[in-house]
């Protein structure tokens, strides 16, 4: 009985804590913060400065608990996926592993034809210019490497984590005088992205949710999706059915404060590949989106295998 109780308490304790996910065979790890599930009001009202029509109506959303990357994924980490030189270091899958997929089954991104940081920095700087497909496949690769299930956040999860309990325009409130303390944006970024984690985190310990680089979510963008939701939407997810548009959140180093608001939504567009000379254009890189990156999440409740694949870009 004592042994069983100890296991229960140990499991409960783990589900309450943040942790580091070590990448085998490297010096790198990913810091993840526990975001406890709950209910919040998603979207913004018409009286919020900067409000756009696709942010309403405000509606109630209930979410399960998940861990979220403390920082945006950096080039140091992303290039491990692009090069695929450490694939042999994947963990041995056990019956208890959250995922069973082998890393050899994960599609790899092609090497870009130009240097995609555009000279803005790599070590410790956010990775940019990847398509949503590439970000999704990074999550699948990370899952295969670690045995734990990772994916992009849903749009609802992203906003919930960004708000960190706030119902105002930003996680810190409405006072733009303190935006500089939390975000890199067009007025203070020196026209480039900055190292991750160099601004204050929100109240839940997440850095750069406002600004630095905008972030991919799992969802298809639909300007009227909020109008179709129930009185309380539980774990909403707009499953993608086409390449464009997908939802990007958070605003970037290039943007005005309005785009950095917690409720602000942005649809992706094929114009983000307009200067790609390849025929057909790359499905892995956006040559004209030096403002887009991503971070990862791991749900506390692991979905069954069939459901995992819907977040990794499979039909």
Keywords:
alpha+beta; four-stranded mixed sheet; 315 residues; four-stranded antiparallel sheet; 18% helix
Q: pLDDT below 50 for ≥5 consecutive residues: which ranges?
A: 1-14
- Biggest pleated sheet: 4 strands, antiparallel
Residue share in helices?
Answer: 10-25%
- Broad structural category: alpha+beta
Compute the number of helices: 6
Query: What sort of overall outline do the alpha carbons produce when their principal axes are compared?
Result: globular
> Total strand count, please?
11
Strand content: 5-15%
* Sequence of strands across the biggest β-sheet: 1-2-5-11
Q: What's the gyration radius in Å?
A: 19 Å
Order of helices and strands: HEEEEEHHHHEEEEEEH
Short description:
This protein has about 325 residues and is an alpha+beta fold. About 20% of the residues lie in helices and about 15% in strands. A hairpin with a 6-residue loop joins strand 1 and strand 2 (about 30-35).
Describe the model.
The protein has 315 residues and is an alpha+beta fold. It has six helices and eleven strands. The strands form three sheets. It has a four-stranded antiparallel β-sheet, with no helix packed on it. Strands 9-8-6-10 form a four-stranded mixed β-sheet. A three-stranded mixed β-sheet has the order 3-4-7, covered by helices on one side. A hairpin with a 6-residue loop joins strand 1 and strand 2. The longest helix is centred in the middle third of the chain and has 15 residues. The termini are far apart.
